[in-house]
Specification:
- By secondary structure, the protein is α+β, with helices and mostly antiparallel strands.
- It has 3 helices and 4 strands.
- The protein has one domain: Alpha-Beta Plaits (2-Layer Sandwich).
- The protein has a 4-stranded antiparallel sheet with strand order 2-3-1-4.
- Strand 2 and strand 3 form a beta hairpin.
- The N and C termini lie close together (8 Å).
- The relative contact order is 0.31.
Length: 99
């Protein structure tokens, strides 16, 4: 099991639009085979900072997400909204072991 935490800093004028685009991506991602979670988090102290928590059953399932139309649409639409390039960090899921 693999998860990626994607850290995104959004320009203040694009916060609501970023949330809308990310919600559309979320709604499709959770339907993907092998998807365990796809959470969108906003930093309490700084509304321009977001983390997308993407959990998949395998590396292959996570990689497949990056080939979907909804991912490409999200990536293209939010690029102009970012204050700097997004940063994705991969983690292995250790617990819970219920997956």
């Amino acid at each position: 099991m693999i998860t990626t935490c994607v850290y995104v800093e959004v320009k203040p004028e694009f916060i609501n639009e970023f949330i809308k685009e990310s919600e559309a991506n979320h709604n499709e991602a959770i339907k993907e085979p092998g998807n365990l979670r796809f959470d969108i988090l906003q930093l309490a102290e700084n509304p321009c900072m977001f983390m997308l928590y993407e959990a998949y059953i395998s590396e292959e399932a996570a990689a497949a997400h990056k080939t979907t139309a909804h991912y490409f649409k999200w990536r293209e639409n939010v690029e102009k909204m970012m204050a700097k390039p997004r940063n994705g960090i991969k983690y292995n899921i250790l617990l819970p072991k219920t997956f």
